[in-house]
Amino acid sequence: MGAMTARARTFAAVITALLAVTACSSTPESTTASTTADPIGSESVPTLKADVVREYDRGNDAFTQGFEIDDGVLYEGTGLEGSSFVRRTAVENMTELDRVDLPSELFGEGITVVGDTLWQITWQDGVAIARDRDTLAEERRVSYDGEGWGLCAEGRGTQNERLVMSDGTSTLTFRDPTSFDAESTVDVTLDGDPVERLNELECADDGSVYANVWQTFDIMRIDPGSGKVTAVIDGRPLWDSMSAAERKGADVFNGIAQIPDTDRFLVTGKFWPKIFEVQFTDSAPVGQN
Ligand SMILES: [Ca+2]
Questions:
Q1: Positive or negative, the Cα torsion across 32, 214, 276, 34?
Q2: Beta bridge partners of 201
Q3: How many CB atoms within 10 Å of residue 260?
Q4: What's the pTM value of the predicted model, to 2 decimals?
Q5: How remote is the CA of residue 204 from the centroid of ligand 1, in Å?
Q6: Which CATH class is domain 61-282?
Q7: Which residues are within 5 Å of ligand 1 (an ion), measured at CB?
Q8: Ligand 1 centroid to 103 CA: how many Å?
């Protein structure tokens, strides 16, 4: 670095310390949502707003990793070693119906319901658990390669059911809904660039796959055939709408569940005390730019 004044050395030390703090914060256990930036901009796809239809208060005990509604029940899987669980909640009154803890050595991630089965994946344990969707009782386990982040099921109730899984990269893996075997992959891109850190997923009625992007307030709407992002949803205003007390201890934006047969979704975050029911609308309608 050559000759530095004492003041310059002090300044350099402060910057180094700040960088170290930033680096330390980039683990799933300790991130804070307040460090994330503006939505990823794109000239080729629209940025959508998340218009709030209603809000639900809830406890802030859920490190939300998987979020899905089926037949009037909100299924939620949570993370962290020693405190991961999966639960069923009645959507009509947001009353918890059942909850099952994971063994303390497992770090829970995404969940999805397909047929009579709820699949729950784990972060770095390489284990997917098949559960009875009604009792959440474990029925069997399978192993897979790599990390597990998000999970959803396409084509439910049709001949074309398949699971979609994220692993923290830009790649989505399609899996057999019964065997959990990997069948193919697609790389997710926005304007030709890979979109990394794909997290919680939602297979929507219109064939799109929605994905939270870890450490951002963005949700990507993805065409799973091509991997191309077709819209970017800005969730930042949801975070901004919460009070300082509500944000205390809250982690990243994560969790998206379509309310079946509607254009509305429930979204939340890890340790967020609120669930937002939202509709995605174009923030700059044609002719109003
Ligand atoms: Ca979901």
A1: positive
A2: 211
A3: 15
A4: 0.86
A5: 9
A6: mainly beta
A7: 67-68, 202, 257
A8: 23
